[in-house]
């Protein structure tokens, strides 16, 4: 039960990430992702962040749908593994804060999911 609550929190985080990436004023994404505000005035970076935001919203909705549909533990586990891997990649390529904010909650959810079996 606790693992499912954490999985929903991971999903809600991704919806929030998507919102920040797609609609946040330059100050919010700069603070959230460690960019300089001047960098975020670059149209190409804005489009790239918006595109990434769409994927985060999609992932958040997918996680919620899987949880509501009472998906099997292997399906939820694979989804959390994906989130952990993406979080690790983000931590290595953008900012280490991504590991704490994105990968760690998914990793804790994954561990609790395995312990509930």
TrEMBL record:
Keyword flag RNA-binding: no
Keywords, ordered alphabetically: Membrane, Transmembrane, Transmembrane helix
Keyword match Transmembrane: yes
Listed transmembrane segments: 58-91, 98-116
Annotated InterPro entries: DUF1304
PANTHER family the UniProt entry points to: BLL0914 PROTEIN
Protein name (database record): DUF1304 domain-containing protein
Lineage: Bacteria, Bacillati, Bacillota, Bacilli, Lactobacillales
